[in-house]
Q: What sequence folds into this?
């Protein structure tokens, strides 16, 4: 009797496990067929590229923010722009601004019909700023696209899954709760996946955009300082560089 009881218990557990495994992500994708699998693969690709863009842009932004600290620390204490630029990294965004400003100054003297030096330099530095900001913004449009379209892509998978499930239920002629709720519940998984892909993409887009705006303001302020320095022949510097270090108090005279 004990052996028969154990056999019945094992068969009951197996049947329960089979019933539990009847519904799931793979079953939902199989229910929708190749179209559901294609939609699922598209959502996975969207998610992978979103996280790739997030991490690569964070690293890129952190480099620029670190370069800003280097500029504040000692760039304006140099005797000239070229000497200050030599202190910066070769691939530094701030060095690019300085180099483009110096190049624009040299090119201005070669113009046959020269425009105002300020206008020429301002245009050159603005183009340099725009190039840097465009590079930092690269890939963010993909995050915005994923955030806007991923829920609808998941919803498309849900609609196809529900349609396929209802067709099979209609052919089988079964309209019980378990026959309807299972396939329909499986189809809703695709909507959940779409939201899971979209929400991180939207959060990443807003966060990276906020950091880019901070960097853009820093670049604009530095570009304006460089422009003032060039057009004034070095007489105009930021306040941080113009401030002289406090004089040390004189040592008291020795008593005789």
A:
């Amino acid at each position: 009797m004990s052996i028969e009881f154990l056999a019945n218990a094992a068969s009951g557990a197996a049947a329960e496990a089979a019933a539990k495994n009847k519904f799931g992500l793979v079953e939902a994708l199989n229910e929708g067929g190749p179209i559901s699998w294609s939609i699922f693969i598209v959502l996975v690709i969207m998610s992978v590229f979103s996280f790739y863009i997030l991490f690569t842009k964070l690293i890129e932004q952190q480099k620029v923010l670190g370069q800003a600290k280097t500029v504040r620390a000692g760039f304006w204490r140099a005797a000239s722009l070229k000497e200050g630029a030599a202190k910066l990294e070769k691939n530094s965004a701030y060095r690019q601004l300085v180099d483009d400003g110096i190049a624009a100054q040299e090119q201005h003297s070669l113009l046959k019909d020269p425009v105002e030096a300020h206008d020429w330099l301002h245009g050159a530095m603005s183009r340099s700023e725009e190039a840097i900001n465009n590079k930092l913004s690269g890939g963010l449009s993909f995050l915005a696209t994923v955030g806007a379209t991923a829920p609808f892509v998941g919803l498309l998978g849900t609609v196809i899954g529900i349609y396929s499930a209802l067709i099979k239920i209609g052919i089988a002629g079964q309209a019980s709760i378990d026959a309807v709720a299972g396939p329909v519940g499986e189809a809703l998984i695709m909507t959940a996946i779409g939201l899971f892909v979209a929400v991180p993409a939207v959060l990443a887009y807003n966060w990276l955009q906020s950091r880019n705006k901070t960097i853009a303001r820093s670049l604009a302020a530095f570009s304006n300082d460089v422009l003032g320095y060039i057009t004034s022949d070095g007489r105009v510097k930021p306040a941080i560089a113009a401030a002289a270090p406090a004089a040390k108090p004189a040592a008291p005279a020795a008593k005789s």
Summary: The two ends are 116 Å apart (CA to CA). The mean pLDDT is 79. The chain has one domain: 24-237. The first helix runs from residue 2 to 20.
